[in-house]
Amino acid sequence: xxxxxxxxxxxxxxxxxxxxxxxxxxxxxxxxxxxxxxxxxxxxxxxxxxxxxxxxxxxxxxxxxxxxxxxxxxxxxxxxxxxxxxxxxxxxxxxxxxxxxxxxxxxxxxxxxxxxxxxxxxxxxxxxxxxxxxxxxxxxxxxxxxxxxxxxxxxxxxxxxxxxxxxxxxxxxxxxxxxxxxxxxxxxxxxxxxxxxxxxxxxxxxxxxxxxxxxxxxxxxxxxxxxxxxxxxxxxxxxxxxxxxxxxxxxxxxxxxxxxxxxxxxxxxxxxxxxxxxxxxxxxxxxxxxxxxxxxxxxxxxxxx
Length: 305
Prior knowledge:
CATH superfamily: Glutaconate Coenzyme A-transferase
Shape: globular
């Protein structure tokens, strides 16, 4: 019997029977690796502000496995929805299934985020500098840019007011830069305009005494690696994805990357994590179409039901 043909009750029972051991190369796709990397950033007591795509996949997988008490907020106004399957977007009505509250932007940004309740935010960006600052505004001179981008939206609010922020950004030299042409969302360093002339300082000094001095990026997940930030607010390489070398990551960074703290390879998704991601979170393959077959030992578990 195929897994997708099983009744929901048997699927749920099967979760704990799936081995919680790392899958082997070729048994998972890159997108699945990234989704699980997002999921592992979620803590059980988190209030998570997430957007469409990988963040949705990550938080929903985490809720099934190791963060059942985490609360998910979508900017559309949904708070604490109990979504059965992945919504197409944050405005999809499926996101509101069994939610605690259903409001709007004023509720999500004004009540939850700006009052300091959000503990984790997932964001993207056109470019990120080594200080964790993100640009989604313009490339080149602001007043005469070579390219005008979409603008902040909620990026600046979430990136500076969520206690922890995880960015998901494709790995390219033009995207990982020494300093942004324009900083939409400050990272761990920013300008201190109280001095004349303004000085470039750690944000913890500039924002000292405010509720958001300790809020900022904790990780960047790319298609090649996972990055984190040191005690000085500078990005360093944490792990490289399977098949990727440290040298390849450095080649795709526009600054001299600290590689002295590399812990090795990004942990593979476990069979249990893949099972939840595929069969519960995104069974319709809305966001992840590349889905390798289960190995024989996993398929046997289903066949023996």
